[in-house]
Amino acid sequence: MSISTSAPTSGYYHAQGDPPGTVRFWDGSQWQGGPTSPPASAVGKRTGAGIRLASPGRRIGARMLDYLVWLAIAVLIALLLGVEVGGSLRAEVGAGASVLQNLVWFVAVAALEIALVSTRGASLGKMALDLQVVDAEGNIPTVKQAALRIAPLGLVILGAFGSWAILIVAFISLVLMFADANHHTLWDKLAKTVVVDRPL
Fold first, then answer.
1. How many domains does the structure of the chain reveal?
2. Could you give the CA distance from residue 95 to residue 196 in angstroms, rounded to a whole number?
3. CB under 8 Å, gap of 24 or more: what pairs does 162-171 form?
4. 138 vs 62, which has greater pLDDT?
5. Is 3 contained in some domain?
6. Which residues pair with 32 in a beta bridge?
7. Cβ-based neighbours of 165, under 8 Å, separated by 6 or more
8. Nearest one of 43, 41, 42, 23 to 33, comparing CA atoms
9. What is the arithmetic mean of pLDDT over 63-91?
10. Among candidates 166, 175, 173, 168, which has minimal Cα distance to 188?
11. Is 30 contained in some domain?
């Protein structure tokens, strides 16, 4: 099913034949999901209008802000566990940290991310850059989807092997973000979500 002779970019649009006032997600070549009421979380006042996918650059910027938050959590956990942080305020996570330290850090980060993404549709970094995570229907992700998005970070528990695995997953996701029409990363595909610009 196409919506016009020159297909628009990915986004949420009203599809011909669908009930008035509904939208569905167009991935650039076909419709994904069925018609739904425009959720306030995804389209706000722009009823029936398309929502723009977040650019890879803005997504990377949001993730960098998230990393700063995660680093602060790592430092706090290191201090609470009595691990020496050092003059540079560098707290070990990954290969150089204990299994307990990695586990506590992952649980703390995952709890924060799952809570924010499943209730607000965005991590702190995404909120700062006005980005939002939505599912194929344009709704805020479920707790399960939010958990699936952060699950790959759990590899950190495996120490050195896990740290290398996370770097590989991150590299593949970076390539996908630029190559995929929907700027999907591996965790987007795993959770069946997409990151969009939050409407003003």
1. 1
2. 33
3. 162/94, 162/102, 163/94, 163/95, 166/94
4. 62
5. no
6. 25
7. 155, 158
8. 23
9. 78
10. 173
11. no
pLDDT of residue 50: 56
Q: Report the greatest alpha carbon distance in the chain.
A: 64
- What global pTM score does this model have? 0.68
CA neighbours within 13 Å on the CB side: how many for 1?
A: 12
Distance CA(21)–CA(6), nearest Å, equals 23
- Let me know if residue 37 belongs to a domain: no
- Residue 24 sits at φ, ψ, to 5 deg, of -150, 165
Confidence of residue 136 (pLDDT cuts 50, 70, 90): confident
Distance CA 51, CA 47 (A): 10
